[in-house]
Design a protein that fits this description.
Shape: elongated
Strand content: 25-35%
Largest sheet: 5 strands, antiparallel
Strand order of the largest sheet: 1-2-3-4-5
Structural class: alpha+beta
CATH architecture: Roll
Radius of gyration: 13 Å
Number of domains: 1
Number of helices: 3
Distance between the termini: 38 Å
Helix content: 25-40%
CATH topology: SH3 type barrels
Order of helices and strands: HEEEEHHE
């Protein structure tokens, strides 16, 4: 994938190429939700959970691959962080 900008760091390019895009529905260790952001340094995605509207940061691996396949290979995924619902 070509960089958006010639100064974009390769780490950002790799993350963008493999992370679920913003707005995509995903399953997380905390339940189903929608991707609302990315955190490249921690290799995680920010997800707004369907139930309660809380946000959680989950490792990219825990939302990118099919849950059963991921859990079979790595065990149950753990959430990186969870926040209170937005008001």
């Amino acid at each position: 994938m070509a960089p958006r900008h010639k100064y974009e760091h390769p780490l950002h390019q790799e993350f963008r190429a493999s992370a679920p895009r913003t707005g995509l529905a995903v399953d997380t260790p905390q339940g189903p939700g929608t991707v609302v952001g990315h955190n490249v340094p921690s290799d995680s995605v920010i997800v707004r959970l369907n139930e309660g509207g809380r946000r959680c940061a989950c490792s990219k691996a825990s939302v990118c691959s099919p849950r059963k396949q991921h859990d079979a290979m790595y065990g149950d995924a753990q959430a990186v962080a969870v926040s209170e619902p937005e008001e």
